Amino acid sequence: MTMASNPVISMRNITKIYNVGGEEVRALDGASLTIQEGEFVSVVGPSGSGKSTMMNIIGCLDVADEGEYLLDGQSIEQYSEEELARIRNKKIGFVFQTFNLLSRMTAIENVELPLIYQRLPLGERKEKTNAALERVGLTDRSHHKPTELSGGQQQRVAIARALATEPTILLADEPTGNLDSKTGSDILSLFHKLHAAGNTIVLITHNEEIANQAQRRIRIIDGRVWEVE
Amino acid sequence: MFALSVKMAWSAIASNKMRSFLTMLGIIIGVLSLVVLVSLVNGATGAVTSEVETLGNDIISVTIRDDKGSPLRLENLTEIAFDETIAQVAPSGTMTATAKNGYSDASVSVNGTTASYYEIQGLELSYGRFIKTTDVDNSSYVVVLSYDAADELFGMGNVVGESISINGRSFQVIGVLAEDTSMMSAMTGGLSVYVPFTVESRMAGQPYITSLSVAATNDIDTAQTAVENYLLKRFKQDEDAFSIMNMSSISDALGTITSTLSLLLGGIAAISLLVGGIGIMNIMLVSVTERTKEIGIRKAIGAGRNSIMTQFLIEALMVSLLGCIFGLLLSWGILALVSAIAGTISFNMSLGVVGIAVGFSSCIGLIFGLYPANKAARKHPIEALRYEG
What we know:
The complex is a heterodimer. Helices cover 34% and strands 28% of the residues of chain A. Chain A is α/β, with parallel strands linked by helices. A 6-stranded mixed β-sheet of chain A has the order 6-7-8-3-9-10, with helices on both faces. Chain A has a 4-stranded antiparallel β-sheet with strand order 2-1-4-5, with helices on one face. The two termini of chain A are 14 Å apart. By secondary structure, chain B is of the alpha+beta class. Chain B folds into 2 domains: 2-52 and 252-386, no CATH class; 67-237, no CATH class. Chain B has helices at 2-14, 17-56, 77-82, 117-120, 133-137, 147-154, 183-188, 197-204, 220-234, 247-290, 292-300, 305-342, 351-377, 381-386, and strands at residues 59-64, 86-91, 93-101, 104-113, 125-128, 142-145, 163-166, 169-177, 191-196, 211-216, 242-246. In chain B, a hairpin with a 2-residue loop joins strand 7 and strand 8 (169-177). Chain B is elongated, with a radius of gyration of 34 Å.
């Protein structure tokens, strides 16, 4: 493992506090984490451990109450929603458990959507969309709607959508949770392929077996981060 | 970017056609009532105005109520006509009498006048000639029948040379007027016949002129002032001794009435458009809630508040503009149908009304889309993503 000078993710003493029924809940309690470029890291933890909060903060869907978070060298602070949206658009590629494709649109339109929000011209959009679909091996199904695709194919479209913008990190939240084990392992081997091609991948799961496939494992317990050797 | 937003909005609208149509219905009905009502009033106004104009906007009518001991006689009319702003003057004495031809009789209104009456009133002859100055001078018992009077008494048009009796006196028919199809004649109704003024005044026992019509050479207002000055001088500066009016003042009054009417009806129609706008807002709010997950996904992959806001605003705008287009098409059809049925009057959509309808619909779409769009834009991405509807 090479320790590059510029980590992709650098978190120091991140704390996130929720107010649930008048009671303070520390979802993250002084969590620190560093991820280098090109790493394939899995984040494991039981439900309620602060896993989702970690994902939301890494994915810039939420900001921490305390601590410092550098994404690709850029400090993510109390940004406005508009600015966070722009950062998500450029640097993060989300892959969700429930795929989260827009059902009214075809596969290719779904993949194109983040590029539309980047306001890229048509030609460039088409080029990147097709390249992303090719990387997940779904070029022949590109004009089908999500309802006409199998679960595995839908997740591939979602991965293509995440890859289309060439993000800094691919952030996957239980990507195999809604798939059978055969399709799940197909998706995982796709992740391995993408990792081999140089993508930085953060995989969030509660499944130890899947977590073990990553090159590096991180465990979250009660809002604190532990490295798994 | 805009074309893509329109495409996205279209796919959202098309995904639930029935609901979109019902939402549009409010706007369709609003636009329909606005355009049809205003166009109907405008069409009717146009028809009535042109009708009044054919009656002659350049006729000044004078009625004398009190002659102050110096009544107007036939020879005085030349004094009035002497003024250079006045082209022609004709008296008109009116009485009701019974006209007979053999066994058919009818109640007619007898107009006693002179030769100039023909031109002042813009009458048209079908057969024969109108009253001449010699007929007036000689008090000849000659009569010109209106088309309707000839039809009533003889059952045919060309009856020049025939005789009829009016109140027991025999008159020779010297002319028949052309059929008058104007709305005014239909409104005033009755059968008219024209005889020399001298004959009518003798029969009615009214030797003086109590009513006259004046045609102006050029400007009707200066001519009216001239007539007024003459009469004031004659009737000892008593303004109440006579009344004077012209057709343009009638058409002015008519114009005021109809523009008020179209404003009123347009206002009522605008209220129904407003109700249509509330319908749009209602459905947009439902749609925003239903599509919470979609909003969450879009936000996760990088849509900012502005993008979401624009998307929903364009959707609302498109619903209302599509409604507007359907409304305009329907209005056009209805107006074409009404014109076909009405026959003589044609009702057209004026560009102004179309412009108002489009402008008003866009405003309504934007205003009533603003709140739902803002609600969509403000959704928190994490909560929206978690939403399962």
